[in-house]
C-alpha cells in the first residue's frame, strides 16, 4: 500500500487537437513546481499521480499543486495492488466522524470478479460494521469513498477532493504586461489573466523620491506573492517623477490623471514590444475612481493602438476583488500604507468624462516623445 496524490484536469478536454500541447505545458508546470521536493510524478491511463514522497512533505506538495492553473482538483489516495481481499481489508480499517457516506466503485479492469454495484454494497456493509453510527446516503452524503479499479492492476481508494486553481495551464496564452501598482486590484488582475494561461511580466511606475523605497519593495513583494500562481515575474521599474512634474507644470490640473494614464499606456506599449508581451493588463474597474469611467478608459485606450488593454476586473465589486486578494495571499501587503505614484500630485477635481480632443490639446504642451524615451532609458529590471 502506498500513499499517492491523484490530480484531475478540466477544460483541457475541450481543446481538441491542441489538447496534447496544453497537456504538455501542464505537465511541465507540475514538474517545475515540484522541483526540489522529493517525489515522483507520472501519468498513467488518464491519471496524473504524485507518489514516493515523504509524508512530512505531503501538505507542502498539496499546497503547491492547488496553485497550478489547469488542475481542477486533487485527492489524497492509497494505491494498492488490485486484489479483492486487499481492498476489503483496507476498507475495513477506515474510520469516519461524519454522519452519512456512500461508496462508489469504478471498474476499468473488467477482469475484476465482482460487478461495481454489488461490490459497492459489500464495501458499504463493511464500513457500516466498523462505524455503526454512520448512515448510507446515495445523494446527500458527507463523504464519498471512491474505489477506482484501474486496468493497470492497481486500485486507488480515496475519500476527499481538494479544489485546485482551475483555469488553463500557465504559458498557453502568451505573455501579458501587468501594470502593477501597490494596490489591491492589479495583483488580482494578474492572477485572473494567468488563470486563463497568460504568463505575466510586470511594469511598475515609481515617483522616487516622492514615493519611498518601501513603496518599491512592496511592489516586489506583491510580484513574489502572485508567483506561485503566475510563475516567476520579471518586473520593469520605470521612473515616472519627471513626467509627473512636467504634467503638473504645464497642463491643467483636472487633466493630470488622464494624461498620466495615457503616458503610462504609451510607455507600456513600448515595454510590451520589448518584452514580447501581447497585451497590457490593468486592475481597472468600472466606476471605481474618476480615471475608471468608460469615457476615461476610452481616452486612455486611444493613447496607443499597438497593444490591446485587458481589464479582467472591469465588472467586479470591490468586495469580490478583496476576497480573491485574501485567497491568493496579496491582501495584507496591498493594504500597507505606502504612497503610490498616482497619489502624488493628485488634483482635487479630476475630469470624470474627459474629451479626447481637449486632452490631446493639453498634452501638446509637453514634449511627450522625449519624456517617454528618457523614462524608458532609465528602466530597471528586477527578477522577482
Ligand atoms: P490598484 O488597487 O491596483 O492600485 P486602484 O484602484 O488604486 O488600483 P488606480 O490607481 O486608478 O486604481 O490604477 C488603476 C490601474 O492602473 C491599476 O490597477 C494598475 O494596473 C495601474 N497602475 C496604477 N498605478 C500604477 C503604477 N504606479 N505602476 C503601474 N501600474 C499602475
Ligand atoms: Mg493604485
Summarize the structure.
With 384 residues, the chain is α/β, with parallel strands linked by helices. The protein has helices spanning 19-34, 58-65, 84-91, 116-130, 185-195, 213-230, 241-250, 256-274, 294-301, 318-328, 331-334, 356-363, 368-377, and strands at residues 2-9, 40-44, 47-51, 71-81, 100-107, 135-136, 143-149, 154-158, 162-163, 175-179, 199-206, 234-239, 279-281, 309-310, 380-383. Helix 5 (185-195) crosses helix 10 (318-328), helix 7 (241-250) runs antiparallel to helix 8 and helix 8 (256-274) packs across helix 13 (368-377).
Provide a descriptive summary of the structure in words.
There is one protein chain. This protein is α/β, with parallel strands linked by helices. It has two domains: 2-163, VC0802-like (2-Layer Sandwich); 175-383, HUPs (Rossmann fold), CATH 3.40.50. It is built from 13 helices and 15 strands. Strands 1, 2, 3, 4, 5, 6, 7, 8 and 9 form a nine-stranded mixed sheet that branches. A six-stranded mixed sheet has the order 14-13-10-11-12-15, with helices on both faces. The model has no long low-confidence stretch (mean pLDDT 94). The structure holds adenosine-5'-triphosphate and magnesium ion. Residues 181, 183, 340, 342 line the site of magnesium ion (MG).
Amino acid at each position: 500500500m502506498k500513499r499517492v496524490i491523484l490530480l484531475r484536469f478540466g477544460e483541457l478536454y475541450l481543446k481538441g487537437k491542441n489538447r496534447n500541447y496544453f497537456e504538455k505545458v501542464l505537465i511541465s508546470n507540475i514538474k517545475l513546481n515540484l522541483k526540489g521536493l522529493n517525489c515522483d510524478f507520472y501519468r498513467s491511463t488518464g491519471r496524473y499521480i504524485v507518489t514516493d514522497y515523504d509524508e512530512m512533505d505531503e501538505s507542502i506538495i498539496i499546497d503547491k499543486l492547488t496553485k497550478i492553473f489547469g488542475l481542477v482538483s486533487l485527492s489524497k489516495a492509497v494505491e494498492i495492488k488490485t486484489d479483492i481481499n486487499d481492498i476489503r481489508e483496507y476498507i475495513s480499517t477506515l474510520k469516519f466522524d461524519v454522519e452519512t457516506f456512500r461508496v462508489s466503485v469504478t471498474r476499468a479492469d473488467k477482469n475484476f470478479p465482482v460487478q461495481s454495484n454489488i461490490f459497492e454494497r459489500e464495501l458499504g456493509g463493511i464500513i457500516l460494521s466498523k462505524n455503526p453510527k454512520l448512515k448510507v446516503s446515495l445523494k446527500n452524503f458527507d463523504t464519498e469513498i471512491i474505489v477506482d479499479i484501474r486496468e493497470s492492476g492497481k486500485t486507488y481508494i480515496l475519500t476527499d477532493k481538494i479544489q485546485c486553481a482551475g483555469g488553463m495551464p500557465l504559458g498557453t496564452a502568451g505573455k501579458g504586461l501587468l501594470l502593477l501598482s501597490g494596490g489591491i486590484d492589479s495583483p488580482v488582475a494578474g492572477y485572473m489573466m494567468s488563470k486563463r494561461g497568460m504568463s505575466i511580466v510586470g511594469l511598475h511606475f515609481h515617483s522616487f523620491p516622492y514615493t519611498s523605497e518601501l513603496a518599491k519593495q512592496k511592489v516586489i513583494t506583491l510580484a513574489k506573492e502572485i508567483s506561485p500562481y503566475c510563475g516567476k515575474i520579471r518586473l520593469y521599474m520605470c521612473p515616472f517623477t519627471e513626467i509627473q512634474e512636467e504634467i503638473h507644470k504645464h497642463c491643467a490640473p483636472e487633466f493630470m490623471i488622464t494624461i498620466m494614464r495615457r503616458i503610462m499606456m504609451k510607455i507600456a506599449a513600448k515595454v510590451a514590444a520589448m518584452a514580447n508581451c501581447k497585451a497590457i493588463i490593468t486592475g481597472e474597474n468600472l466606476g471605481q475612481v474618476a480615471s475608471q469611467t468608460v469615457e476615461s478608459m476610452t481616452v486612455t485606450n486611444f493613447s496607443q493602438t499597438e497593444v490591446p488593454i485587458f481589464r479582467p476586473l472591469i465588472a467586479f465589486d470591490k468586495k469580490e476583488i478583496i476576497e480573491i486578494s485574501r485567497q491568493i495571499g496579496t491582501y495584507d501587503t496591498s493594504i500597507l500604507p505606502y504612497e503610490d505614484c498616482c497619489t502624488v500630485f493628485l488634483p482635487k477635481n479630476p475630469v470624470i468624462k474627459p474629451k479626447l480632443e481637449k486632452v490631446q490639446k493639453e498634452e501638446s504642451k509637453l514634449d511627450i516623445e522625449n519624456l517617454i524615451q528618457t523614462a524608458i532609458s532609465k528602466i530597471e529590471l528586477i527578477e522577482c
